[in-house]
Design a protein that fits this description.
Number of helices: 1
Number of strands: 11
Strand content: over 45%
Oligomer: single chain
Distance between the termini: 39 Å
Structural class: mainly beta
Helix content: under 10%
Shape: globular
Order of helices and strands: EEEEEEEEEHEE
Length: 129
């Protein structure tokens, strides 16, 4: 069975940090790009970041550039999202997803949910004092 297990969410004060993890199983992890999405209450799901299969290419939403860093460890079938300088507007359920698409396509379309083949359950991040 394909599984994507997101973890690491929690309550953090503004300015704080969290590291999310996405552990994958049931498919050839090295062949897939992994994206992070988030959905705040009453809002649509939005793309946060994406890392290509080799880890050499990454994409970020403008709202998180300079604060979030995505990385992957293919030996552990895991992708990480290091989130620093967190703001209340970062509060959301965060999801990870896997895409078999290549860089030429995801360079333009990584923010679109339809480009991803597998999805995990979410992990809640709450930024509040």
């Amino acid at each position: 069975d394909v599984q994507l297990q997101a973890s690491g969410g929690g309550l953090v004060q503004p300015g704080g940090s969290l590291r999310l993890s996405c552990a994958a199983s049931g498919f050839t992890f090295d062949d897939y790009a992994i994206g992070w999405f988030r959905q705040a209450p009453g809002k649509e799901r939005e793309g946060v970041s994406c890392i290509m299969s080799s880890g050499g290419t990454t994409f970020y939403a403008d709202s998180v550039k300079g604060r979030f860093t995505i990385s992957r460890d293919n030996a552990k079938n895991t992708v990480y999202l290091q989130m620093n300088s967190l703001k209340p507007e970062d509060t959301a359920v965060y999801y990870c997803a896997a895409s078999r698409k290549g860089t030429p396509r995801l360079f333009r379309l990584w923010v679109l949910s339809r480009e991803y083949d597998y999805w995990g359950q979410g992990t809640l991040v709450t930024v509040s004092s």
